[in-house]
Design brief:
This protein is mainly alpha-helical. The chain has a domain of 35 residues. The protein is built from 4 helices and no strands. Helix 2 crosses helix 3. The longest helix is centred in the last third of the chain and has 14 residues.
Length: 66
């Protein structure tokens, strides 16, 4: 760089909280719950995610996301 401030950089301006968080406002699947939990999508993990979704509903994904 030539010393100029990068015009695309946000620098010291914090990212708004609404942009940092992802929720389950829309439809989501057992695959989404697996991936949000850091698990591989396997039959065993899909069964776990489906049980979690049945038990907790939308919270099953919200609890895993920032």
């Amino acid at each position: 760089m030539n010393g100029e401030t990068d015009k695309t950089s946000r620098g010291d301006i914090p990212t708004p909280d609404r942009l940092l968080h992802a929720g389950s406002e829309g439809e989501f699947s057992a695959e989404d719950v697996c991936l949000a939990s850091g698990r591989d999508v396997t039959p065993k993990n899909l069964a776990w995610a489906e049980r979690r979704m049945a038990e907790k509903g939308r919270a099953s994904l919200d609890e895993l996301l920032p």
